[in-house]
């Protein structure tokens, strides 16, 4: 029998200032200490859960069938009964949160819905530690170009979708590696290579994870978009995915034949989503950083993500803007994530445009080939 503690994952201290250094851009560099603190908290929660179990505090039996179905759908297996009890308790809280949000959405209080997915047995803190790998503390202001404007003398199209036009590879799952920064950078370069060569070829995310440490990245402990492009420039390219496939972990850097090349990159002006729109419309998909801390983002299902409580800082997750549009009077960005196609709208999310939603207009980079 498994139990519900009634404790929300979001209520656990998700801001361990005593183990991390913060900068204006995001988390500090002591990732290992933060991870150790997280493991300690999880262990303490499991002890508490065992106490409740022995005391006869039981789970919601009405959810037994749903729990079994969810585990089967997402192929969940746990090490022991205690681990399953803890994960069940977290999952039950997500069930309640999703239900509450969607009831509010049906009443017109939200522009998007949420749903259970493969992240639903993890606390918000665990998701952020495992899935959000953008390390903005390594960003140098000199890489920014607030004075850059993209010259254009014709009206922008009302909507753009590079995915439909065949410039975007299928959604992947970064898994247990904090490699969002690599997926985002590679996605932007793949589109530019398609424009140049006329064929869409998946490029190697794993090569960036394994080989770009000297450029300032930290493999599965996170990285930076500009550092990724800096590596590609200095290395004179990266390999095809087929020759250097993704492994969901960091391994030894190995030599490979380079296919995707770029001669530089451009960091777009901060807080200027019109300039960002011009680049997306005329050049192609753009790699961007966002704040992905909220449970509503973790469990986004469909609609236009307009979360008033989402802060613009810290930026901790990298995604790929692949287009934009407008629905029911709301302007949005079409964004590709790397959390599998089980998440969101087939792996994508539509985020409110021109309001710097979750900091989406703060840090954006496009490769130059």
From TrEMBL:
SMART domains: Inhibitor_I29 (SM00848), Pept_C1 (SM00645). It comes from the Eukaryota. It comes from Silurus asotus (Amur catfish). GO terms for biological process: proteolysis. Residues 156-368 form the Peptidase C1A papain C-terminal domain. CDD domains: Peptidase_C1A. This is Cathepsin S,-like 1 isoform X1. SUPFAM superfamilies: Cysteine proteinases. Keywords: Disulfide bond, Hydrolase, Protease, Thiol protease. One of its GO terms (molecular function) is cysteine-type peptidase activity. Residues 67-127 form the Cathepsin propeptide inhibitor domain. It holds the Pfam family Inhibitor_I29. Belongs to the peptidase C1 family. Gene3D superfamilies: Cysteine proteinases.
């Amino acid at each position: 029998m498994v139990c519900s503690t009634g404790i929300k994952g979001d209520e656990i201290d998700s801001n361990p200032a005593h183990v991390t250094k913060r900068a204006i851009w995001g988390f500090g560099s002591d990732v290992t200490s933060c991870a150790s603190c997280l493991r300690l908290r999880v262990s303490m929660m499991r002890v508490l859960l065992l106490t409740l179990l022995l005391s006869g505090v039981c789970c919601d039996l009405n959810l037994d069938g749903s729990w079994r179905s969810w585990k089967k759908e997402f192929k969940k297996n746990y090490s022991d009964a205690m681990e399953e009890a803890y994960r069940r308790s977290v999952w039950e809280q997500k069930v309640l949160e999703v239900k509450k949000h969607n009831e509010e959405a049906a009443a017109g209080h939200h522009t998007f819905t949420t749903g259970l997915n493969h992240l639903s047995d993890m606390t918000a803190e665990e998701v952020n530690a495992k899935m959000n790998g953008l390390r903005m503390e390594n960003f140098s202001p000199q890489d920014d170009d607030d004075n850059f404007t993209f010259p254009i003398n014709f009206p922008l199209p009302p909507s753009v979708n590079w995915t439909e036009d065949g410039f975007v590879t299928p959604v992947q799952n970064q898994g247990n590696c904090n490699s969002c920064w690599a997926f985002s950078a590679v996605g932007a370069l793949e589109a530019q290579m398609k424009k140049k060569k006329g064929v869409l070829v998946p490029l190697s995310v794993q090569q960036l994870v394994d080989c770009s440490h000297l450029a300032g990245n930290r493999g599965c402990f996170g990285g930076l978009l500009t550092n990724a492009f800096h590596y590609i420039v200095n290395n004179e390219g990266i390999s095809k995915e087929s020759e250097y496939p993704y492994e969901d972990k960091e391994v030894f850097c190995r030599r490979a034949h380079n296919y995707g090349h770029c001669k530089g990159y451009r960091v777009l002006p901060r807080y200027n989503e019109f300039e960002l729109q011009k680049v997306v419309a005329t050049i192609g998909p753009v790699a961007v950083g966002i704040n992905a801390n909220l449970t509503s983002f973790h469990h986004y299902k469909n609609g236009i993500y307009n979360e008033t409580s989402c802060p613009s800082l810290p930026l901790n997750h990298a995604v790929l803007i692949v287009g934009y549009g407008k629905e029911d009077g709301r302007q949005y960005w079409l964004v590709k994530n790397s959390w599998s196609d089980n998440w969101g709208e087939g792996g994508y999310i539509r985020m409110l445009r021109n309001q710097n939603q979750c900091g989406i207009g703060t840090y954006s980079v496009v490769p130059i080939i």
